[in-house]
Amino acid sequence: MTDGEPSYIDYETFLDPNFSPASFANSLVISTNNANDSPLDLSTPLSRVLFDLQEIDTHIHTLTTKSALPLLTHTREQTGSGQRVVEQVEEQVASLTSGYQRLEKEVLRKWEAAEEARVAAENSWATVRLARAVARCLSLGRQLEGQLAELSGRGSTRQDHKILSDAAYAIVSLRRLLSATGEGEEGYGLDRVKVVRTLRNELVIPAENTVTTRTQQIINRFSMSTLLAEENGGSAGSSTYKQALDAKARVISAITTLYILSPAPRPKTPASEYRPELLLSTLQGYMHTSLTTSLSALTKALTMLPTLERTLVEISARCQDIVALETILGTLRPPTHPLLESQTPPPKELPTTAQDTEKPFQSPSDQAQSGTVTTTTTTTSSSSSSTTDNLLQPLLQSLDTSSLPSYFWRSLASSLRSRVHDIVSRGGVSARTLKSNGDRLRAELRECVLRGSQLPAASVLGREKGLSKRDATDQPVVVGNWEREAAVMVGAVVNTLGK
């Protein structure tokens, strides 16, 4: 109550936070009625509640009437204060708006202009970079097209193996550029340029197939007859020797070209881990062809003994081709591959002569068969370096052999054993003739192996290895010990005849 006016209403009960209307009504009904009365009298508690409400309403009206002026005054003061605060806030908002507009004009719009310039610069740089890549592709394509024209013999006197070497480097450069299409790489976006796609489909891929086919043909047609040089003097001898050197350079270029054109390695692959699959498959195919041809010819000659001598001469010539190939591979270091990780920059032109790529070399055939080789303990680093010191080692590893002639004779003997067994099983004149000429077969097979495992002294490779020495009977001196291979060949034929 205000001003200490007495009141019978218990305001504390109504103002209690835990006030419950139901509990208050229940207590009011109980206090105004007798608990034993059957019908309850609700009019009395209801009248009391209504009277209390009238009392409270009267009290509120009295307080409002007495305090109207102070309330209005207080409200007016609060309204005035709020209005002044709003005016101050509006002034600050106007100041902030003006500052923002000034900053927007001085900074934001300039930033937007700078952002547009940046985007334009990035697009221009991407265009320039793409244009440079396209120009480089077209330049390499024009260079490759000219090399293919020279290769076909139109208006050029250059040796074709040199053209193949240059074309191989152009193809690999194009391959590297066309494969670097990741974001930020040199060839990014080239796959979306139509002229580049046309260049790849109509020039690069056919050119790579052409160069690969030509180089494989050079290796498949390799023979010692192309490396023979006459010993007599005069212009004819000099011309023949020059032709032999050119033939050797042709084979070296073909081998190196296939090494370069082998499937691209993974990025940042060290040269020591690179396997030139195209080169290895071509050389393995050459070995397989020699073995297959020799096996077929020797099987036929064993059934027609008068032709045996000529057939053995041909087989020994094929093995001499393999010995010559082994010698050439042993003198060649792996060329610098543009796609391999190397500390030295790639050469501008592929070496095409033996002097450019050769180093002093003793073939595995000479090392394995001679009795002067001493066994030494090598470290892991030295053994790993020896496997990549020349192009012969990857081929020997793929064939799981120590030398190519040994692989040739042992593989030939392994396949020949079943053929001889078939001839003996069929019987007839051929089988009886073979059994009656066992000593002749033994001597001729041994001579074939020893002759085929040596380089002819008249060849370019024979001269370089110093094989022009002759014994008292004017026969070439045999280098190395090939008796084991001879015994394997003799055993494959003669021993099978006795079973």
From TrEMBL:
Tell me how this protein sits in the membrane.
Peripheral membrane protein
Q: Name one GO biological process term.
A: intra-Golgi vesicle-mediated transport
Q: Which residues form the Conserved oligomeric Golgi complex subunit 5 N-terminal domain?
A: 12-144
Its subcellular locations are: Golgi apparatus membrane
Q: Name one GO cellular component term.
A: Golgi transport complex
According to the record, the residues making up region (Disordered) are 333-389
Q: What sequence ranges are listed for the domain Conserved oligomeric Golgi complex subunit 5 helical? A: 193-445
Please state the protein's primary subcellular location.
Answer: Golgi
Checking InterPro entries in the record gives: Cog5, COG5_helical, COG5_N
The record's keywords, sorted A to Z, are:
Golgi apparatus, Membrane
User: What name goes with this protein?
Assistant: Conserved oligomeric Golgi complex subunit 5
